[in-house]
Specification:
The structure is a single chain. The protein has a 5-stranded mixed sheet. The chain has a single domain, classed as Nucleotidyltransferase, domain 5 (2-Layer Sandwich), CATH 3.30.420. By secondary structure, the chain is of the alpha/beta class. It is globular, with a radius of gyration of 17 Å. It is built from 9 helices and 5 strands; from the N terminus they run αββαβααββααααα. The two termini are about 20 Å apart. InterPro entries: RNase_HII (IPR022898), RNase_HII/HIII (IPR001352), RNase_HII/HIII_dom (IPR024567), RNaseH-like_sf (IPR012337), RNaseH_sf (IPR036397). One of its GO terms (biological process) is mismatch repair. One of its GO terms (molecular function) is RNA binding. One of its GO terms (cellular component) is cytoplasm.
């Protein structure tokens, strides 16, 4: 049975002198359409205990995930989501686009008063795609399953997922034949069939449709959310 994320890692970083910890996670990496979004959640040593039920967004029912959004905003010092457009994914590649979205999220946190330059940044996964996008990088720490284990990263995961899902529901209103209200731009069979019948839109990642095997980590082609 899934368990809630904890603050064990963040508290260890605070005990070592970090003035702020920023959890970072992405959503939409493997989608065929829509933005890739990076959530960033900044917490302070004085932050209260994290919301009950906070965990990796993929482990939460939609209603519970939506309910956690205002709780996460009330708990954190600040939260932001950065985006990279489908055209930027096509131009730069998915890894650089992730970095661009992450940089935009950190800039937004800085604008909200977060001391980003002195922060310890926890990035979900084992690959540091964020540092190459930054001019002056804070300390970046990658951690496998951080979205499951670390409350700040779980909050970033939830916020980014809800943000991107809302964008895709809006896009569905413009392009209903692709079923983005359900598949959120991932490569479900119905989505792929709609592309074959109607062609691609400006919200699709065109390079991925021409050569999905060359699109980096395109696990979304199987319909799985990444």
């Amino acid at each position: 049975m899934p368990v809630d994320a904890t603050l064990e890692v963040e508290r260890a970083l605070f005990a070592a002198g970090a003035p702020v910890v920023i959890g970072v996670d992405e959503v939409g990496r493997g989608a065929l359409a829509g933005v890739v979004a990076v959530g960033a959640c900044a917490i302070l040593p004085t932050c209260a205990e994290h919301p009950v039920g906070l965990r990796d967004s993929k482990l939460l029912a939609p209603a519970r995930r939506a309910a956690l959004v205002p709780l996460a905003h009330g708990w954190a010092q600040a939260i932001a989501v950065g985006e990279a457009e489908p055209s930027e994914v096509d131009e730069l590649g998915i890894i650089a686009a992730l970095g661009l979205a992450g940089r935009r999220a950190l800039i937004a946190l800085h604008g909200a008063g977060v001391d980003v330059g002195r922060a310890e940044v926890l990035v979900d996964g084992v690959h540091d795609w964020l540092t190459p996008a930054l001019v002056t990088a804070p300390r970046i720490r990658t951690r496998a399953k951080a979205d499951r284990d670390c409350a700040s990263v779980a909050a970033a995961s939830v916020i980014a997922k809800e943000h991107r899902d809302a964008l895709m529901r809006d896009e569905h209103a413009r392009f209903p034949v692709y079923g983005w209200d359900g598949n959120k731009g991932y490569g479900s069979p119905a989505h792929l069939a709609a592309i074959a019948e109607h062609g691609a839109t400006e919200r699709h990642r065109r390079t991925w449709l021409r050569a999905p095997e060359a699109a980096g980590d395109a696990r979304g082609a199987s319909g799985a959310e990444v």
